[in-house]
Amino acid sequence: MTKFVEPVRIIAVVLIALAIGFVITALVSKEPVQAYTALLTGPLPRLSFENGFEIKNINRFGNWLEESTTLILLGLAVSIVFRARQFSLGAEGQMLLGALMTAVIALKLSLPFPAHMLLALAAAMIIGFLWGLIPGLLKAYLSVDEIVSTLMLNVIALQLFDLLLFNWLRDPAAGFVGTAPFPTSAVLPLLIPGTRVSFMTILMLIAVVVVWFLMARTPFGFELKMLGANRKFAEYGGINTKRVIALSMAVSGILAGLAGAHLSMGLLKRLTINLSPGLGFEGIVVALLARNDPRWVLLAGLFYGYLRTGAQIMERSSDVTREVVLIIQAIIILLITAERLFPFVQQWVQLRRSREEVVVEAG
After folding, report:
1. 3-state secondary structure at position 54
2. Is the pLDDT of residue 154 over 90?
3. What is the pTM of this model?
């Protein structure tokens, strides 16, 4: 029964947060039911039988899968580092450089499909690995705080991104700061017509399985778990904790690099300034929701992506702004990360029951 306690707790927290969100919506909206319905059902496709079988709003469903694919990749990246009890904030920079490298390969090389696409994906994963390895080595061998190092490396990555985009990759004919469209040989193939859901969704599902296998069925996963439980005990058991720390951040960077490739090769099919500010930090939320379990990262990413897509629909179709959804997201995070909340409630209920039993026996 204990293995079902955590999922039930997370589901209960989400339901409580959604209920609180509805109360907040009712306070700020003239039509709270309509607004909340848009939030909760907006991303779902509609089936129509008026002129034969037809699926409507497929683009909204596509937006949900597009958002979720990126978020799941980032959540997997963060969960690997968190499993080792490290606190890397470097997914943002790794994602930016991953997207940047895909643009370099796409625009500066001429290759046939699928070699062009695969080379761009490989370049994104390699730069993510190397950029994640830097703070890993700094933490493992020089005891540099990983929060500081990853934040500073994010700044460097952003400046490199802007520098190369402005001075080398920018399309002068475009009416905005961005590259020319990628050639079709370097674009991810579509999975669902009428959307931007691409081959990356399949790669994301494969990544979930690979990360789960890595954590649950390999020596490296065992080392991650031991390091996260107690570093001194892990060292006493013969584990090279410095190597594990460095590799955990480097392997995390592979997935963040893939998330950047999804943005450039799958969604935009080009590189633009302000690619997706702050999205790398959303992976932390997904990893927290999933308790660093890759299987739950899949569900947490789908849920979080659903909220983000529903927020955009609610903002367009009602008088409620998406900031209300940000409040709901914050409530979910606060409740889930409140380790002592539900144990405290459970202890209080048990105490009340024991007192009632004592009163009944005394009576």
Report:
1. strand
2. yes
3. 0.87
